[in-house]
Design brief:
alpha+beta; six-stranded antiparallel beta sheet; four-stranded antiparallel beta sheet; 15 strands
């Protein structure tokens, strides 16, 4: 059946609330600060240490520079775009390509956040009550996990097994055999101060799974843990973490809630300095090296005190919180929780600048001393972003228990099964599973707007081409009379083809 445009039906609609408008990343403070300063900042740091004989034998890792370059191309029409066409009124629309970076791009970070949350709620997290467990770590352990993905995976496994044992013990008290658990962990690498803060957000099915006599896997929720129970679990985590780190040669003299630059375990000396300073919320290079990040709005000096609350335990830098719970019927609330734990490190709305050109970053929640904003020079801001960029091939979302990728019973507990029909012949294959929602459907799900709606007639636009050829791009943009969004990187930024830095090798 042929589509019918609302215009041809004589209906009147308000398209202004539904239409999609191209974002203009080149006009944001973040884009301008990076394109004008990141090359000069990184080069000046490398040259200064080379001239002073600082002993730095390697430059900044390739993946750091490549992340900045990809971000600068994100959403720029001159770098490529999708062309949309309305068959009813012949209107055209262009949608720029995205960089898909995991570190400093707020837009791609938000899309990844929404896509991950939608995928988890629709296809992964089983129906049932879900509880969030959050584990924060001492500074020294954060530093170790920042560069060593092998140790991170090992400690994450310990963390899961300790909490899982709490649910399994409850099942055994009920006399149910072979109880199992299911969980998803988000490894967050950032804090609210643009600081490097490795911590775990884990969404546990708040109970356990067991198999009845008919072979059906059922879920049984249990009573919420008490504050004393959370503290007991925290103590067990501390004991096993310290023991595991000592076996690997770390924490020979115990651990201290402090970080300095002299650990020397990371292969790249620049990243050693950047990560250690970021964890300690200090400046890594420049005239203010070793000083704390400047604060705005601070009215008094308040001694730091650990937070206290229900189902919250703080012991020597280890903080375990388990008071957030989502009911089984609240899948919308579960998706909101998934978006929260999968959120990106940066937000364009929180970035501004003062008259001197310094970057002002707004805190989501003011400090108890009255601090509302943080102040960075351009160079300090660039270095702060360097520490937040995750290394390549380090997974930031992990699946445990029944949700593990190799668990044979995974399909029996996830909320949706594959709708693909059984192959009729042995030579036939299942169609590929779509793990990512198409961008227009995702945009509609998150913002309640239809990215494919025509702003002139209200008809549905169709993607007709993916334009990447520079000459074709130039002609199309000129014909449509669109504003030039190309940019120039100050001091030049050649795309260097070099080896990728693997921090755990």
């Amino acid at each position: 059946m042929q589509d019918i445009s609302p215009m041809t039906m004589g209906l009147k609609f308000q398209y202004s609330d539904l239409q999609y408008e191209r974002r203009q990343p080149e006009k944001t403070i973040l884009h301008r600060a990076i394109r004008e300063n990141f090359v000069g900042t990184l080069q000046s740091i490398e040259c200064a240490h080379a001239e002073s004989g600082g002993g730095f034998s390697t430059p900044f890792p390739y993946y750091i520079k490549n992340e900045f370059l990809k971000f600068l191309d994100c959403g720029i029409l001159e770098k490529g775009f999708l062309r949309l066409h309305c068959p009813f009124c012949n209107a055209s629309k262009l949608v720029g390509h995205s960089c898909k970076c995991r570190g400093i791009c707020p837009v791609c970070g938000n899309r990844r956040m929404a896509n991950t949350a939608a995928n988890l709620v629709d296809q992964v997290i089983p129906f049932g009550q879900v509880r969030q467990w959050v584990l924060s770590l001492p500074f020294q352990i954060r530093y170790i996990l920042a560069y060593n993905s092998e140790v991170l995976t090992s400690l994450l496994g310990i963390y899961f097994r300790v909490i899982s044992s709490y649910y399994i013990l409850a099942a055994k008290k009920m006399g149910l055999p072979n109880p199992r658990t299911a969980a998803v962990t988000f490894v967050q690498r950032f804090g609210g101060q643009l600081n490097l803060n490795i911590h775990f957000h884990t969404l546990f099915s708040d109970g356990f799974f067991y198999t009845n006599k008919k072979g059906i896997i059922l879920f049984k929720k249990i009573k919420a843990p008490s504050t004393e129970g959370v503290e007991k679990i925290n103590k067990k985590i501390i004991k096993r973490f310290v023991r595991a780190l000592r076996k690997r040669g770390f924490l020979n003299d115990g651990y201290k809630d402090d970080v300095t630059c002299d650990y020397g375990h990371a292969q790249n000396e620049f990243m050693t300095t950047a990560m250690a300073a970021s964890i300690g919320r200090k400046i890594a290079w420049g005239s203010r090296r070793g000083c704390k990040v400047q604060r705005i709005g601070q009215t008094n000096e308040v001694a730091w005190k650990p937070k206290q609350g229900l189902r919250l335990s703080y012991i020597n830098g280890f903080s375990l919180h388990a008071n957030v719970m989502v009911k089984s019927s609240d899948r919308v609330g579960l998706e909101e929780l998934c978006r929260y734990v999968a959120r990106p490190a940066l937000s364009n709305s929180r970035i501004s600048e003062d008259e001197q050109g310094n970057i002002i970053y707004a805190l989501k929640i003011p400090y108890t001393d009255g601090t509302t904003h943080l102040k960075f020079t351009i160079e300090e801001f660039i270095v702060a972003l360097v520490a937040l960029i995750p290394p390549p091939r380090v997974h930031l979302v992990r699946y445990h228990g029944l949700l593990g990728p190799n668990c044979k019973d995974r399909k029996k507990v996830i909320p949706i099964q594959s709708k693909a029909k059984e192959p009729k012949k042995e030579s036939d294959h299942y169609p590929p599973k779509e793990y990512w929602i198409k961008w227009d459907k995702l945009y509609q799900r998150v913002f309640k707007k239809d990215a494919l709606i025509c702003t002139k007639c209200g008809g549905t636009m169709k993607i007709v081409a993916d334009i990447t050829d520079p000459e074709a791009i130039k002609k199309i943009l000129s014909a449509l009379g669109l504003e030039d969004s190309s940019y120039t990187i100050k001091d030049g930024a050649p795309r260097i083809n070099g080896p990728t830095y693997y921090p755990s090798d």
